[in-house]
Amino acid sequence: MTGKASMLSLLAKDRFASAAVVVLGFIALCAAVGPVLLGDLAVEQNLRAVNLPPFSIGHGWEFVLGSDSLGRSVAARLVVAAGTTMSVAVPAVLLSLTVGSAWGMWAGFSGGWRENVSMRVGDVILSFPSLLLAVVVLYVFTPSVANLIAVLAVARIPVYLRTARAEAAELRSRLFVDAARTFGTGSGAIIRRHIAPSVLPTLLTVAAVDFCFVMLTESSLSFLGIGIQPPDVSWGLMVAQGRQELQTAWWIAVFPGLAIVFTTVSAAMLAAWARVAGDPGQRWRLTLPRKERISA
């Protein structure tokens, strides 16, 4: 309990990290309840309210952020799109984190040909740019949420594989690992009890940063028309649908673009804070005033 209280107090002292938590919490809330509460409103067309500018609340509260070319509420679509975007980014990151971490820790702890083969497989996957690989796969197969999650997860597995392998390879020669071997502990138990707890903080930090990349990739694919398909809506798809009306109805594309920016920046800021907070040797920096942290 003391450790949790200490981390919360450090978080409360960092204004930027606290703001990032608030932003991400709000987006998570929108993603959780938005499709249920505003799902019908997001697809409801009102041809009498086409391309209304922001704050057109005279036509109803739902047009606080304006409407698109079909008279649909931008605010409602923005909230519902948060759920769609998160439903792709979060599972993709969790899947790649789970597979890549387990694979990397096993390869790093085992060493030898297992490690070499695992790293070569990771190099092959990394040799293809993630966005290009996703474009090719989704062009060959039907664009869908499941295919999108699968291709993004596979493309990001090497990131966790390489990180976990490096950490596990360094830890396998530590004294506490040798002691566990001496007492007859199996390799699987050593990885679960000793390697994984030490590697997990680093992997979670990598996952927070990777979340930004995955979300931007999903938005890019939806923008190109091979990601989320109508009638579903995502932030990237909203930007794509509004790009042709930037001069006359800028809000259709700008607001989802801002949502992408705020989410990725908040996740990156929280990841930077978590990296320092999760390192006992660096945690003391968070107790300093922000102006003194750079020089320290």
UniProtKB/TrEMBL annotation:
GO cellular component: plasma membrane
PANTHER family assigned to the protein according to its UniProt record, in alphabetical order: D,D-DIPEPTIDE TRANSPORT SYSTEM PERMEASE PROTEIN DDPC-RELATED, OLIGOPEPTIDE TRANSPORT SYSTEM PERMEASE PROTEIN APPC
The protein, known as: Peptide/nickel transport system permease protein
Location of the protein in the cell: Cell membrane
SUPFAM superfamilies, sorted: MetI-like
Keyword Transmembrane helix: yes
ABC transmembrane type-1 domain ranges (all copies): 82-271
Keywords tagged on the record: Cell membrane, Membrane, Transmembrane, Transmembrane helix, Transport
Transmembrane segments: 16-38, 78-106, 126-155, 202-228, 248-273
UniProt family annotation: Belongs to the binding-protein-dependent transport system permease family.
Record has Transport as a keyword: yes
Major localization listed first in the record, in broad terms: membrane
Any one Gene Ontology BP term: transmembrane transport
Membrane topology, record value: Multi-pass membrane protein
Organism for this UniProt entry: Prauserella shujinwangii
